[in-house]
## 1
Amino acid sequence: MMLKTVSYTSPILNGRDYLESLRDGRTVIYQGEIVKDVTEHPAFAPFTRVVARMYDLMSEEDALLYMTDTGHKAFLPYMLPEGQQDLERIRQAMERMHRLSAGMIAQGPEYKGPVIAGLGAAGPYFEPHKEHVRAFYEYVRDFRLYPGNAFTDPQIDRSKRPSELSNPDLVLRVVEERDDGVVIHGAKMVSTAAPFNHEMLVLRYGGANRLTENDADYAFIGAVPLNAPGLKVFSRQSFRPPVGTPFDAPFSTLFDENDSFLFFDRVFVPWERVFVYRDPEKADNWLGQTNIALNLVYGDLIRWQTKFQFYTALAVKVAKANGTIGFRGQQERLGELVAWSELMRALVKAAETQPVPYYQGVMVHPQTVLTFRALRPMIYKRVIELVQEIAGSGAATLVSSLKDLERFPEVIDYVRGATIDGVARTELYKVVWDVLHSDFASRSELTERLHTGNTGDVLIQLFFGAQGMGFDEHYDTIMTQVKKLIEEV
Ligand SMILES: Cc1cc2nc3c(=O)[nH]c(=O)nc-3n(C[C@H](O)[C@H](O)[C@H](O)COP(=O)(O)OP(=O)(O)OC[C@H]3O[C@@H](n4cnc5c(N)ncnc54)[C@H](O)[C@@H]3O)c2cc1C
């Protein structure tokens, strides 16, 4: 039976279907206007084409799909893994997508797979709404939708719980209960790629502030389609440069995900899409008791392999172009980049080859993923720093556009490198600027360092999670042994 909450009535099988699916009356707001069609608007269109290409890949490459128990060919990242082999297949499908953007897209359709699968498998956690969760999972999976997730409450005043704010309507909460569902109102701070999504999974994360019984209205988890009446998606400024050629900023042009602020202006949610309702414990504990958030982090870890590989390759190319590849300092930096890349691969292997039981099936090794989560801000910063040091200041002194070289070819020889001509070197350094220094790069760094939790919280969580490891006993055992040895020698 088709639920009345279903907005998309047939699977999205290829890029054309995807582009068509976005013309659904959604309200995306950009520079004071409601965007008529995101697939045509210059701030959004290139990314819709990139996602369309991902959908085309799904239709072209059978290795990206699997047969579900409901008889659909679904995208592998949505599979509920039952063992290590499944985890391997899922990871390979995700890597295939990451290769399309050198790992520059943080939250593409593949990224959402394990997140929604993690939700779908965790039925018992969501009792009495287990069936709702399962139906949503199957709907997104079988129709090959591209969902978003919004959990972070607006910062406003982190020292207060939502109900303590001067206006109780600021943070998203349930404002009305009806026979057929609930009405939600308020804001979520950020959802990456929201203008390109089909469904929005709404959860709750308010930093260190846990909800109490007084905040029951805020204890909501559910899902709404992007074209739900009342849902307003405010995209941040797009990074696509308005002038020049796409090769002046290829990554900003193609891969800007338009993080967005979401305002739910009395949005109706039918009961079928309510997963947690007026249950503060459940609204907060999903972070630790389901693998939804863990899978977000794991998706990043998988992607970082590709991204770091690209940074290393870029650094080698630049060092060759500048004639510095033979210098010892550069070689040390390149060696360190290789080490970081290899470490990502090793962590992925460690997570994948030590699966642990999950509600239904298995999940990747949590401690490995949480270790990555805790160290990622430091690692990412270091990798960027290394590539910047290798590339030097060339990126800051580029001509404004490759068009300048076309118009004034006499300058081409003056901007050449040791091994490449002036046009090729300018193209290369345009990439350096784009992925290391531009607005796009700066946002990319912010998301890679911070988007899975504030740096302090994640370290503290790791420490508290490790309490059961028996640090005191460990110290005492070692010291008893040392004392005994001292007496004996
Ligand atoms: C580019 C980008 C994309 C993102 N995409 C998404 C998305 O798609 N969906 C989504 O839901 N979220 C998304 N996020 C949000 C992300 O999950 C949060 O940024 C992250 O969880 C950290 O929370 P915060 O930014 O609210 O920081 P805060 O929690 O406000 O922390 C900011 C600083 O204040 C300190 N602080 C805050 N509260 C306390 C306290 N109680 N005690 C002591 N110190 C405190 C912290 O230590 C930290 O240094 C995205 C973020 C970024 C940057």
## 2
Amino acid sequence: MADRKQNNKNNRRRNNNNNDDDLNPRFRKIRKKVCVMCSNKDFELDYKNSEQLRKFINEKGKILPRRATGACAKHQRDITQAIKRARHIAILPYTQN
Ligand SMILES: [Zn+2]
């Protein structure tokens, strides 16, 4: 009995993990960004597709941080790798000006 109660509590906590911001009134209005690649299974990151990669760099050519791209850790690593490959084959710039 006590065990089941504990389990329910744990499950609830796990389920609410994504909505932590909702609990804090200061950040209630801010929507947590969802990773584009996790939410869209058809999205294929391609280091040869400069149009696609341009969404993940700023005007200086720097790679945007996760807080800006909204990508999960795994896909942010993929994005970084793709951008670096694209730079190497001169599809994307290392720097602007
Ligand atoms: Zn992801």
